[in-house]
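Thread: zinc ion complex, take 2
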Amino acid sequence: MSAHPSEWTLRRLHAGEIPGPERQRLQAHVSSCAECHEVMKGLEANQVRFEEEVPFGRFAAGVEAVQAAARRAWDSAGGKGQAMSTLGVEAHWFLLRKP
Ligand SMILES: [Zn+2]
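Output below.
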């Protein structure tokens, strides 16, 4: 059997995003390849677990929480921003000093 399809390809196959002949080729590979068969089983299990554990509302809330945390991190990095602009000024001086 030729090279294994990538996990991404298997994901797309699992999601039904791969058309006709290509899908048949991949399905033939998966059914004859223990390794890829395991990957597909893992994808199915992940999908089921994801849908059970994370209803969409909670998923959206999680995204919002991550964005809020990123904003807080950005705000509290004000000192770092200051350091960066100091560095920029020094770099500028260095360039000016060059003969
Ligand atoms: Zn394989």
